[in-house]
User: Fold this.
Amino acid sequence: MIDLYTYNTFNGQQVSIALEELGLDYKTHKIDLIKKQQRSEAYLKINPSGRIPAIVDHDVAGSEKVVVSQAMAILLYLAEKTGQLISDKASEKAKTYEWLAFQATDISTNIFNSFLLKVLIKEPQLVASDILRNRAKSFYKVFDQQLGKTQYLVGDNYSIADISSFAIVHSIHAELPMDEYKNLDRWHQSISKRSAVIRGLSVPS
Assistant:
């Protein structure tokens, strides 16, 4: 059994989608960011940084449990644990790491900081927020170019690289001029129809 501590954000959705795709037995614990439950004493014992998502894996041989936070780290842990959603081929595994890092550093960081400047601070910085959001959107050309060559981000096999990137693309899909990103649009539509993805997007309900 895996305990998943999450909220309905793109970072949280990455992990719930992966858990659904892998068919792992898990229990969801909603950490309401609006109510600042991520700063509760109980949750800080699980993840001292006070961020979601986090998992506690109780199904570990020779150990009581494994605790992992940070979406990218959790995806890698789950893929390695199950031997699924990541290639055994060194070159493809390296590309999976590369896409995960690209999404986490160049896309997610800009999107979150844009939200921070627009919504979370007392004196919103709308111009700076828009600059960061547009910077993130500009990187979608990189996704589109790659998906013009391959079915998924790492060749022809669906992987945690796709799950990670899908969650963030999906979160601002309505804002993207998809006529400019035809390959990305094809990829997004295809993944959106996967039953595990549909279930994962609704976690926590």
DSSP finds nine helices and four strands in the chain. The CA atoms of residues 11 and 71 lie 6 Å apart.
